[in-house]
Amino acid sequence: GMLWVKEREGAHRCVVASITVKAPVREVWNALTAYEKLPEIIPNLAISRILLRDNNKVRILQEGCKGLLYMVLHARVVMDLREKHEREISFEQVEGDFYSFKGKWRLGQLGDQHTLLKYMVETKMHKDTFLSESILEEVIYEDLPSNLCAIRDYVEKAEAERGNSTIHSDAPTNPDTVPLCYTEGRQSEQASVHCSSSSTRQRPKVPGLQKDIEVLKSELGSFIAKHGQNGFMPKRKHLRTHGRVDIEKAITRMGGFRKIATLMNLSLSYKNRKPRGYWDNLENLEEEV
Questions:
Q1: Is 286 inside a domain boundary?
Q2: Residue 219 belongs to domain spanning
Q3: How many domains does the chain have?
Q4: Which of 193, 213, 244 is the last residue of a domain?
Q5: CB of 169 within 8 A of CB of 23?
Q6: Going by C-beta distance under 8 Å and a sequence separation of 6 or more, which residues neighbour residue 221?
Q7: pTM value?
């Protein structure tokens, strides 16, 4: 699951995501803490180098790039990490392209052979950055799910190779399962990362959806008729649960949920709003996943 929080002032973003890995905590931990091997796992990560290590404190340099239309973004960051063995890795930028960049990885055992991996990050861009908020969102939003999937795939593949002699297990892995999905609120952690089969297939692109308001209205109306509640604008999580991130992106590009809801005479179905400052705390974000 993934939760995205957008603050009003400037390019300030908080993200919490989680994924289930079919491997013991120890194996996930070993992959995450092999810092200089991370470029072999993480897409778009070019360099990951340990600069200093002092017991459970580590300083690393990471550089990455992201290809966008007409341009390539390069990011460089030096981070201080603090390890809590097989439980948590907290990190914070000490030098880099962000105004601030901090967060943590958390690992939790699910049964004997599964791990719940959580990632929490809060970023702020410099006020004079040339990056628009929409580009920042696209870079983080597009990369985070693929990064988590890459970690999962790497660990599960290594685990399968180690246990090759006992490959006929009671719970075979379905290679077509997409582990990242979006569910309501504070359900159990296992439920928050379970995806229905309807979201596992690649959905063909809808021509004109990202540019034509009438196409968006048609697709959104069909979605509400099939999956939603008549007269109400679906939430982001609802769209994601049913694999319609394309509709969510189109809504954002054409003015946002409130504007489209007004155009289509739909009501917004928000839960009780959190108090001001609630989303500034990463611990609160984690609780909402």
A1: no
A2: 202-268
A3: 2
A4: 193
A5: no
A6: 264
A7: 0.57
pLDDT digits (tens, 9 = 90+) for 63-96: 887 665 555 567 789 999 999 999 999 999 999 8
Q: How far is CA 203 from CA 200, 243, 246, 247, in A?
A: 9, 8, 9, 12
Query: Domain with 38 in it: what CATH number?
Result: 3.30.530.20
Q: How far apart are CA 94 and CA 77, in angstroms?
A: 8
- C-alpha 233/C-alpha 237 separation (Å) is 12
Give residue 193's pLDDT: 37
Residue 264 and residue 249: Cα distance in Å, rounded? 17
Q: Which residues contact 25 (CB under 8 A, 6 or more apart)?
A: 86, 107, 108, 109, 115
Q: Which of 201-210, 234-243, 276-285 has the highest mean pLDDT?
A: 234-243
36 and 109, same domain (yes or no): yes
The answer for residues whose C-beta is within 8 angstroms of residue 137's C-beta and 6 or more apart is 4, 6, 13, 252
